[in-house]
Amino acid sequence: MSQAEQKKLDLLITGVGGQGAILASDIIGKAAVTAGMPIRAAETHGMAQRGGSVVNHIRVGNDYGSMIPKKGADLLLALEPMEAVRYLDFLKDGGIIIMNTQPIVPVTVTSGLTKYPEVSDILDFLSEKYIVKAFNADDLAYEAGNRLAMNVVMVGAVSGYLPIPKETLLDSVKALVPQKTIEVNLRAFEAGRQKVEES
Amino acid sequence: MTMREYMLGNVAIARGLLEGGVQVIAGYPGTPSSEIIDTLAARKDRDYHIEWSVNEKVAMEVAVGAAWTGVRSVVTMKHVGLNVAADPFMTLAYAGTKGGLIAIVADDPSCHSSQNEQDTRRYAQFALVPCFDPSTPQEAKDMLPYAFEFSEKFEVPVIFRPTTRISHGKSDIELGEIPVEKPAPNFEKLLDRWVMLPKNARPRHTHLLSIQQPIEDALAESPWNSLELKPDAKFGVIGAGIASAYAKEALVELGLDVSYLKIGVYPVPRKLILELLETVDAVLVFEELEPIVEEQVKMIAQEAGIEVSVLGKNNGFVPREGELDVSAFLEALKKTFDLETEAETSGTSLELAPRPPALCAGCSHRATFYSMKKVFGKDAIYPSDIGCYTLGIQSGTVETTLCMGSSISVASGLYHAGEKRPICCSIGDSTFFHSGMNSLLNAIVNKANITVTILDNRITAMTGHQPNPGVGYTATGEQTVQVSLEELCKAMGAEFVSVVDPYKLEEIQEAFKAAKEFEGVAVVIARQPCVISGKRAGIRRTPYVVDPEKCEGCKQCVKFGCPAIEFDEQNKCAVITALCSGCGVCAQICKFDAIQEVKR
Ligand code: SF4
Ligand code: SF4
């Protein structure tokens, strides 16, 4: 693999509107610029954000469009289990999935129209074809000091795979989260990173 | 050293306008265009006028006035907004401008948050004005100063057409200089230009036609079109706008030796197209939405008597609707070269629950719709409009959505057609100011018998919380008059106007009952700030909890549809989650008094 190719990474972040997928992608994007790499990203805005399913494309080291081709993503970062499955078409066979196991139940389920699949079934299904690292990121964020830092836990979790130095990512966390929450978010990042390193 | 920054496409566009020395910016919010004005309005060191206008037509006219003084102006909107602004725009093409005028009209292939997929490039053709079609956020930014200059050179307005993936894409952007010197405004009284009497319009039409060729020639030389001819290549690809980036990526990936023409601005570069056509046997045209380039290529080939097959949307090689991507390009190539297409393999045995967007927990629209349904019942007809509240389709109270401001007029039409069922339409405050006012006036004067509900959440919520004339401040946060919806409706002749708090179910239901009885146009204004902007403004409410002792598991509160209420099947009891914003509506719905405020 050439130097340039090693620095290319297509990453998909999926989740539910309101979980902070955009901030997670911004942290990575800003860090990539600091590290001097071209970066492209696409995100969901507007109507779909109101608790709907959202997906962000992030392409590090890429000069073209912001959309990852089908079966093109190296990595899928899922902030919610069911949303990990919804966009699998974009992930390479044998690709890596980092998944938060904490479900968010949609209104279609609470109102009794449909059922939420068992998280264990989701995990079994995903493990057949992909490399899966799953853990409850909400709990880790809570231990770090704030449940809302779940998205930063997930950035920490994916950080080892990114062609961007850890320090640069941390600087970008500091620059983008609210001043008061920097400490909590740095802890959240470390918690996520450790979780994946251990597994 | 050049500065690079990571930014949203719309922020890059805003930056491009600054680098182009813009002095007046007006627009109406609409996804995916809204962040352009939001970004510029938030800047502290402003030396330009910026506003959210009440609709796109008005915004266009403000920009026109400014450009006629010789300064550079911009109007922003989404694609369907140009339908509203089409009236001034079509004639503006005749009159032309002095200062550069750019109409930024964002297209939304695949209707990510729109009611149709119309292609703004058709309007450019229709009006005979140039159209810039960026392929990346960087190019979008770089095009704008050029577009201003171009507009001034030919004294003609130009369209700038980003698509969703440009506007809401993010990228590292190389920044340029922002000019400090700007021209002073000076309105020249050119009556034969600014007064479109027939006697003036006729020669202006001739003039507009006469500059088409010079415009095309100038654009062909611009950096936005480029031709790469490969020696011996018998196959060519033409990519336009963002689709050209997808095509290029796939071609590089496959290492194919084909000739490639990128088009970034219209009218299309006839010279470059001819050069390409003369060397190949077939071309594949790849562009989002309508087959505009494709049609032009066919015409050019025919006129020049060149035998070449043109593949694209018309013969099914590229889909005509929806969004394109690299995969769509690969599909088209496979069809062209008759290759096997892989069978889709992503089958899953897991049943995924759909996750449609929903009104927020505690959104007052849900409470209004709940009460509306209670009073008007299943039999009534519910025309509605465009905004967050369109999501009320889940409450069964949104039965039509045509375009901004249409709910009241559609309701009138239903009534005048002889519908005997009760008709209760709904419209947001911003949408009402946009163009609902005209419809209300019309309904009143023409004696419709309908109930009009103004869902007054004190903001334009869906597009990102922009101010409207009801809130008392401008785009830049400056204080201004606060227009009273109730006084406005009364002034238009409405004899029944009732302002209610939708969180108080009894109060709003009483109002709906009275409105239903009323002969004529009854207006119910349901007023409660959007929970998101309310929270930002410091409104704090105590959350609610379900007392499991008292809960009978009747699911009435669950049926209400608030995302904060879940049902615990094991214990047959409702549960309120951390999403609760404390509106207190579910507590009023519960017959067993099982829902109460959290005690502190
Ligand atoms: S009080 Fe009830 S209806 Fe209102 S937000 Fe909380 S759970 Fe939802
Ligand atoms: S953003 Fe505001 S108006 Fe829109 S659904 Fe949420 S609470 Fe309601």
Summarize the entry for a quick read.
The complex is a heterodimer of chains A (199) and B (600). Chain A is α/β, with parallel strands linked by helices.
3D architecture notes:
The complex is a heterodimer of chains A (199) and B (600). Residues 1-5 of chain A have low confidence and may be disordered. Chain A has 9 helices and 6 strands. Chain A has helices at residues 3-6, 21-34, 81-86, 107-110, 119-129, 137-144, 150-159, 166-176, 182-198; strands spanning 9-16, 39-42, 53-60, 73-78, 91-100, 131-135. Chain A has one domain: Pyruvate-ferredoxin oxidoreductase, PFOR, domain III (Pyruvate-ferredoxin Oxidoreductase, domain 3, 3-Layer(aba) Sandwich), CATH 3.40.920. Chain A is α/β, with parallel strands linked by helices and 199 residues long. Chain B has 600 residues and is of the alpha/beta class. Chain B contains 22 helices and 22 strands. Chains A and B meet through helix 2, strand 2, helix 3, helix 4 and helix 5 of A and strand 1, strand 8, helix 11, helix 14 and strand 20 of B. One iron/sulfur cluster binds next to helix 22 of chain B. One iron/sulfur cluster is lined by residues 359-360, 363, 365, 388, 457, 461, 530-532 of chain B.
